[in-house]
Amino acid sequence: MRPRHRLAALAGALAAVTTVVACGSDTAGTGGDAGPPRPGGTLRYGLSGAPTCSDPAQSGTNQTIYVARQIVDSLTDQDPATGEITPWLARSWEVSPDARVFTFHLADGVTFSDGTPLTADSVRDTFDAVIRLGGVEAPLGVSYLANYVGTTAVDKLTARVEFSQPNAQFLQASSTPQLGILAASTNAKGAEERCSGDNIGSGPFTYAEYKQDISATLAKRTGYDWGSAVFGHQGEAYLDRIEFTVVPESGVRTGSLSSGQLDAISDALPQDAPQIEATGGRILSTSNPGTPFGLQFNVTRGPLRDPAVRQALLPALDRQQLVDTVLGPQFKPATSALASATPAYLDQSARLAYDPAKTASLLDQAGWVPGADGIRVKNGERLSFAVTFSQVFAGNQAVLELVQQQLRQVGVDLKLDLVSTPEAIARQNAKDYDAVYGNSTRADGDILRTSFALAGRNLNARGPIPALDQVLDQQLATTDTAARAALIAQAQREVLDNGLALPTVELSQAIGAAGHTQDLTFEASARLQFFDTWLSGH
Fold this sequence. Notes:
- By secondary structure, the protein is of the alpha+beta class.
- It is 25% helix and 23% strand.
- The two termini are 37 Å apart.
């Protein structure tokens, strides 16, 4: 079996209770007046990258979640229009005042695709299995289950989930695919086995075929009748099948959509729009919540050990130029350590305003002076470092090439280290890089804890920073919405104050859809939901 490839820097999750998740243009995804939905047909979808693993619990990249999300239901869902947490497999729930105990009352009559029933034991076994997978295999799920004590089956349809410390983000986390409920046969397997495409969920689709790095085919689940309250209809999905094919080249994806070989594609770039629209198609877009794309610095290596260097880099980038030159109008410059669609986002655009003179002044003060070739030097060390990245998003290389040019203008030599996704994961796990480039999608500010906490991914390889560590812990234990938002705002300040990240641009999903592809919609985490999708004229 091929090794699993996960990139949790692009990981995902839903969750917000109080803030509307921002959406872009045409998110409803209906192409003209096509009449009432008609069941049947096969949707052919072009992924920009290979799914890293068929297991929802181990899913990280957007392209992986597009596939894995369809086979698994979660305890709750999130309304993308309001941010409200709504029923799904759990028809109701109670949360203790200290956010340590969550009691879920499950829908009766739900079955997994192997025919076994959904019970409270299924919830316990799923969460216990995530903990067994561990933080390397399932970093998001383990993070969401912070301080997990266990799950008790109070009765057949009542599951009580307990934590040793308050876990204010868990209700929102219960709506994520990483904590989607799986059958006993899947939960009993090891990490590697769970990536082969035979995962058993209760979702509206099942795996019909899975070929790692090549394709995945999903089939409609006959008899499905327990959809989320957010879904646009009840009963079975409209589509009979979804055929996902990996098509890394943007021009090939666009040509295949325009010629009728594909019905929808990922990562439609601005230059693709005229060709797509000329054949009756359109681009659907929405902004991703979570952490924006950016460089996370290994603070133990090279010139990035110097906090003054990391601070000086913040105003060195013309982020609007990155958007205008490479990405297009559906994208936004990064203005904080969180994307603007995230609950408790704090606008720090003044901190990140383009000011190369300020960068030069800060570097001068820190003793980094221009060398003969224009690259700054201090005590014989060049201001040079590499950024390790993979092409999990089609625009990554072009954005970083422009970042490289911008940094060279202020005397910084940025080297681009493009590697495969498995190599990127291995390097991250070993902390073998100067800087890494990526983002994380989640509609909850707790994504900062997942990304930056000492017990989280800690891509900075940092030691204790008491002010940051304290607010990351406190927000997890704070149930008051306003107080928690204030703590998350302070965490965003601390990330920039300590120069742990160099934000570049906010990720948006840009999906190319043919004219006959109807109701291709985004869920609250900006990932695609295919349950309501249908094909006209088939």
